[in-house]
Every structure is written in C-alpha cells, then in structure tokens.
Amino acid sequence: MTNILRIDSSIKGEASVSQKLLDRTQDKLLAAHPGAQVVTRDLSAGVPAIDGAWIGAIFTPAESRNAGQAEIAAYSDALLAEVRAADVLLIGLPVYNFSAPGQLKAWFDHLARKGETFRYTEAGAEGLLKGKRAIVVFTSDGTEFGSDIDFASGWVRHMLGFFGITDVQFVHADQMVFDAEATLKAAEAQVDALAA
User: Fold this and answer.
1) Is 39 labelled a binding residue?
2) I need a labelling partner for 99 at 20 to 30 A (CA). Which of 47, 62, 76, 136 fits?
3) 17 carries a ligand binding annotation
4) Is the Cβ–Cβ distance between 119 and 152 less than 8 Å?
5) What is the pLDDT of residues 48-78, one digit of tens each?
6) Is 3-50+87-193 CATH 3.10.20.70?
7) DSSP characters for 111-163?
8) Are 170 and 145 in contact (CB under 8 A)?
9) What are phi and psi of 39, to 5 degrees?
10) What residues does 40 pair with on adjacent strands?
11) What are the tens digits of pLDDT across the range 126-140?
12) Alpha-carbon Rg for the chain in angstroms
C-alpha cells in the first residue's frame, strides 16, 4: 500500500494555487494507487518555532522528560512519524518574499534531528529517510523557478536530500502575476506528465 503525506503551507486558503495543484497531483496518485492512504498536514495556522525548550525536550531521553518536555517532544515526534510512514511526500511550496513560508521552514526544523533524519559519518552527513519520493509544488507571483532570486526550491531540495530523500520532482506555477491562466495550464500539464 502507498502512503502519501500531503503538506499544505499556503495561507491563502481556497484561493491558493499550490493547494489546487496539490489536489490535482493527489488525484493523479490516487487514480494510480486506489488503495493509497493520504495523511494531510495543514501548516497554514502556523508551526511552533524550535527554541531552547525544544532542544531541551528533544535531547532529554523520553523516560526522563518532565510533562512540558513530553508535550513539546510529542508534537515534533508526530511530525516525524508522519514523514517516516510516507512513501510519497506532496509538499506545497508557495514562495513568500523569495523563500519558503515560515511555517514550512519550521516544519523542516522539527524534522532536522540528528540520529532520526540524518547522522554524521566520517564521509559527512547521511540522510536516514531513504527510499521516499517527494513532489514539490512551487508557486509564486513574481519569482521565477530556479532563478537567482529563487531561494525556496533549492533549499527545499537540499533539506530533503539532507534527510536522504533524493527522488524529488518539482511542479512549478511561477511568475503568476504575468499570465496566471497560461502559467496554471502549464503547471497542470506538468502534473499530468508526472509518473504516478
């Protein structure tokens, strides 16, 4: 059975282009894998930023955590469990101010845990979440995908690779402000061309 984890990070709700393209991508995958399970994590309401309390909780052995640390760690552990269980990650990447939304950055921060998603070896960092596929839906009003001012897509690809997820494909509806209709149609064609 295929397990799909969908990550929505747009703050635009029903008006979100990334959400519409994620819907289309999800529909394509479900048509090809009718028994697939989908877990959706909507980050639009925000994700707690990691801080000193988070570090204290994560680096304290589970059996030694106080109630507050256990609560902090439980949230982070839930995010990690969703990613571990997934075969395919569908990630919405709306570009805000040339980069990823803060809530998506915070989600990655919760996942970046030594010994859980990566480890250091004599050869350097090794990702521990190998064998997964990621489809990232990049949307922007003015930022061109892959351009010098796109600080989002390369960072997301790097973070996924750091965790061991190297099968990463992008669908992009970029520079929507110039021709939204044609750009959306082109992005829909990219979804339709994806291998399911």
Assistant:
1) no
2) 76
3) yes
4) no
5) 999 999 999 999 999 999 999 999 999 999 9
6) no
7) H--BTTTEEEETTEEEES-TT-EEEEEEE-SSPPTTSTT--SHHHHHHHHHHT
8) yes
9) -110, 130
10) 6
11) 999 999 999 999 999
12) 17
Phi–psi pair at 170, nearest 5 degrees: -115, 140
Give the residue among 94, 89, 194 at the shortest CA–CA distance from 134.
89
Q: Give pLDDT, residue 1.
A: 75
Tell me whether strands 3-8 and 37-42 are parallel, antiparallel or unpaired. parallel
Q: What is the pLDDT of residues 93-127, one digit of tens each?
A: 999 999 999 999 999 999 999 999 999 999 999 99
**Is 83 annotated to bind ligand?**
no
Two tokens, residue 43: 């980050």
Q: Does 99 appear as a known binding residue?
A: no
DSSP one-letter string for 41-64:
EE-TT--PPP-HHHHHHHTS-GGG
Report the distance separating Cα 99 and Cα 151, nearest Å. 5
What is the sign of the dihedral through the CA atoms of 112, 18, 131 and 122? negative
Question: In this structure, what is the dihedral angle of CA atoms 112, 113, 117, 122, given to the nearest 10 degrees?
Answer: 110
User: How would you classify the pairing of strands 118-121 and 124-127?
Assistant: antiparallel
Tokens of 93: 């990447």
Domain range summary for the chain, segments of one domain joined by + = 3-50+87-193
Element (H, E) at 20: helix 17-32
